[in-house]
Amino acid sequence: MTGSAPSESAALPEALAEIRHDFLDLGVKDRLQLLLEFSNELPELPARYADHPDLLEQVVECQSPVFIFVEIDDGLVHLYATAPRESPTTRGFASIVAQGLDGLTVDEALGVPDDYPQTIGLVEAVSPLRIRGMTALLGRAKRQIREKSAA
């Protein structure tokens, strides 16, 4: 890590800074294993979304079908996502973004750097298309946050 990494981490919300730290502390192969662990931690959709998939937005940039929906409740962000279990990389990315944004204020969530996916050490471990999908997932989540907080 470079000398500037601690200040970058300080600017990140705690959960995302911790996730990045966890990935960067590992070798490339172990980072993939951690990503698989995240894929198992993606919460199931609440029934109100499981029964109404039309409410979810597809992240078409992802190689696997990923759908998201953002709620803002009392000024706090909640991101719900779904991705197939047979797509653990994509599912892991969705889990990282969902866990990292959940419970943040609107301003904190919108302040997450757009390039966060490139900073967690997976660029060496997965294809550029997969990183682009995670970046798009974060971008779409932030767009929904902006739209819903303005409403």
Automatic annotation (TrEMBL):
SUPFAM superfamilies: SufE/NifU
Pfam families in the cross-refs: SufE (PF02657)
Coiled coil: none
Fe-S metabolism associated domain mapped to chain residues: 28-143
Similarity comment: family membership: Belongs to the SufE family.
Protein's name in the database: SufE family protein
Organism of origin: Frondihabitans peucedani
